[in-house]
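Bumping my old thread because nobody answered last time. Still need a sequence for this structure:
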C-alpha cells in the first residue's frame, strides 16, 4: 500500500528547496464526488494551476517562487497527489472538464480567477473556459493541451494502451533512467543534457509514484481516454469548444514538445478567437522546467495585462 505520509515528507523537501512553504486546504468537487487538495501560495490576484498526467500540483514548484504579485492555488486533480483516489471514465471526461474550474473556484469561494494549465490540465481548462466563461479571467496554456487537434502520442503512452504493460509499468519501482527516457520523449533532452532540471524535482517525482496511486490512476484514465473504442479524442477539443473560449489566452509552446510542435500549435490557435502563440525553441512539453524565470516572466506579464 502507498504511504502518503512519506510522499508528504518528500513534497515538503521539494518546496523547501525552492524556498516556499504552502498553505493547504481541501475542497469538494460534486461532479466526481471527491475531495481535492489545494496548495496556496502568495498574495494578489488569484491564479488556479491545473497540472497534467501522471503528475500532481507540486509539479509547478520550480515556477512558483518567480510569480510575485499573485495568489497561486495549485490543485491535485482527483486521483493524484494527496487528493482522493479516483479514475475518470471516458464517458464522464468532457462533463467533468466542463465543470472543473467552476467547482474548484466554488470550493475556494472565488467568483473567478486566472488559470495556468498544462497537458491534461490544459484540456480541463479549455473546456471549462468554454462552458463557464464568467469564471476565467486570463489563461496561460503551457504547451500542447491533451486532445488538441492533431496531437501526437509519445511511445510511453502508446505502451500503456496494452493492458499487461500498463499494469507492469504502473507497479515498477520508479527509476531515474525511466523518468529521463520519458522526459526526452516529451522534449526535454536539451535541459537534461545541460543539467537544468534540479535533482530535487526528480526525487519528488519518484516519490509521487512510489507513495501514491497517481501513476496507476492517471495511466488507467489516459489509456481509456486515448482508446477510440471508449472515447473519441476528436470530441475532446472540437472547433466548437475552442471557438467558445473567450478568455484571452497565451500559449507558451515548446518547439520540441513530443505531443506536437508548431503544426499542432498553429492548428489549435487558429480555432480560438482570443489566443496568442509564443513558440519556444529547445523547450519541451513542460516548459517551466526548461527555464522557470523566463516562463514566469511571460506568465506574469500576460496575466498582468502587459502582453
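Sorry it took so long. Here it is:
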Amino acid at each position: 500500500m502507498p504511504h502518503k505520509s512519506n510522499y508528504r515528507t518528500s513534497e515538503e523537501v521539494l518546496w523547501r528547496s525552492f524556498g516556499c512553504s504552502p498553505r493547504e486546504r481541501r475542497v469538494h468537487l460534486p461532479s466526481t464526488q471527491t475531495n481535492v487538495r489545494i496548495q496556496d501560495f502568495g498574495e494578489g490576484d488569484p491564479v488556479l494551476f491545473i497540472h497534467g498526467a501522471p503528475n500532481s500540483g507540486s509539479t509547478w514548484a520550480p515556477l512558483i517562487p518567480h510569480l510575485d504579485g499573485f495568489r497561486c492555488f495549485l490543485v491535485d486533480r482527483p486521483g493524484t497527489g494527496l487528493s482522493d483516489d479516483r479514475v475518470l471514465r471516458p464517458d464522464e471526461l468532457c462533463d467533468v472538464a466542463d465543470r472543473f474550474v467552476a467547482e474548484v473556484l466554488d470550493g475556494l469561494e472565488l467568483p473567478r480567477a486566472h488559470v495556468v494549465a498544462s497537458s491534461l490540465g490544459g484540456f480541463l481548462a479549455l473546456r471549462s473556459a468554454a462552458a463557464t466563461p464568467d469564471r476565467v479571467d486570463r489563461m496561460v496554456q503551457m504547451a500542447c493541451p491533451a486532445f488538441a487537434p492533431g496531437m501526437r502520442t509519445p511511445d510511453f503512452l502508446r505502451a500503456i494502451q496494452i493492458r499487461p504493460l500498463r499494469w507492469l509499468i504502473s507497479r515498477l519501482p520508479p527509476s531515474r533512467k525511466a523518468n529521463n527516457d520519458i522526459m526526452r520523449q516529451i522534449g526535454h533532452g536539451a535541459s537534461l543534457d545541460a543539467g537544468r532540471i534540479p535533482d530535487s524535482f526528480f526525487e519528488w517525482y519518484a516519490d509521487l509514484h512510489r507513495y501514491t496511486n497517481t501513476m496507476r490512476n492517471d495511466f488507467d484514465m489516459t489509456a481509456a481516454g486515448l482508446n477510440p473504442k471508449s472515447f473519441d479524442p476528436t470530441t475532446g477539443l472540437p472547433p466548437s469548444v475552442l471557438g467558445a473560449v473567450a478568455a484571452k489566452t497565451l500559449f507558451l509552446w515548446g518547439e520540441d514538445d513530443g505531443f506536437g510542435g508548431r503544426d499542432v500549435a498553429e492548428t489549435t490557435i487558429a480555432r480560438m478567437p482570443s489566443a496568442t502563440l509564443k513558440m519556444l525553441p529547445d523547450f519541451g512539453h513542460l516548459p517551466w522546467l526548461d527555464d522557470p524565470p523566463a516562463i514566469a516572466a511571460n506568465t506574469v506579464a500576460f496575466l498582468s495585462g502587459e502582453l
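The beta strands are 23-29, 34-41, 45-50, 70-75, 113-118, 136-142, 249-254, 275-280. Let me know if any region looks off to you.
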